[in-house]
Specification:
Number of helices: 10
CATH superfamily of one domain: RNA-binding S4 domain
Number of strands: 5
Structural class: alpha+beta
Order of helices and strands: HHHHHHHHEEEHEEH
Distance between the termini: 26 Å
Oligomer: single chain
CATH architecture of one domain: Roll
Strand order of the largest sheet: 2-1-3-5-4
Strand content: 5-15%
Length: about 220
């Protein structure tokens, strides 16, 4: 099965510099979704719970009827927001997924799940993908013994992710994440080695492992128009 090719240094540079600075709570409210989090609660979740209607002057009156295009666009925007990626990134992932044999929508989600920041989030070492991305950017992790500070790095079967600095395990978000990991089950394609303090990738995520929450068919139709 073909896999996504390596990115150029320019693509990595653009990804690290570009940011979506729009208020996250408003974006989640507009799309009618709740943020994924490994924590019991978060300020963002509480803010959305207080006002579970769209932002703007007419928000409390409920959600307006959407056009067919609007429905497809909203589903695409959900994926962008949940994984914290930019439009150009998602478009590139879709092109890569369309070149892989199989269901394009599911292959797209598999690629997103293979991102290093998502793997850190799925493991429980970070409470949100945004926090995971920040930890990766700050070089807190090694992949197969080498420093890796690129959130979009695609993990592979057999990869070993370790924490770069021992002191990170004593305090801060990673230390808190380790406490969370002890109370919950990991996704079945990851395993934590307590003796070596390493996260082992047993396999790349497949269809049965995906926690979708979105209609991938609508996303494929959006990009296919």
């Amino acid at each position: 099965m073909p896999v996504a090719g390596p990115k150029s240094q320019e693509e990595y540079k653009i990804e690290k510099m570009a940011k979506d600075l729009r208020p996250k709570a408003k974006q989640y409210r507009r799309l009618g979704i709740k943020p994924e989090s490994n924590a019991d609660s978060s300020s963002l979740s509480r803010a959305i719970a207080r006002r579970d209607y769209p932002p703007g002057l007419h928000g409390p009156k409920g959600r307006q009827r959407q056009t067919d295009y609007g429905i497809h666009l909203q589903e695409k925007q959900k994926v962008r927001l949940l994984y914290g990626i930019l439009e150009q990134q998602l478009s590139n992932y879709f092109k890569q997924a369309s070149r892989i044999r199989g269901n394009t929508g599911l292959k797209l989600m598999e690629l997103l799940e293979r991102r290093l920041d998502n793997v850190i989030f799925r493991s429980g070492l970070a409470t949100t993908r945004r926090q995971a991305r920040q930890l990766v950017n700050h070089s807190h992790f090694l992949v197969n013994g080498k420093k890796m500070n690129i959130p979009s790095y695609f993990i592979k079967k057999g990869d070993i992710i370790s924490i770069k600095k021992d002191k990170s395990m004593e305090s801060g978000p990673i230390a808190q994440g380790l406490k969370v990991m002890a109370k919950r089950d990991l996704v079945d394609w990851l395993i934590w080695d307590n003796t070596k303090n390493q996260l082992i990738v047993l396999d790349i995520p497949k269809e049965k492992n995906l926690q979708l929450g979105v209609d991938t068919r609508l996303i494929v139709e959006y990009y296919s128009k």
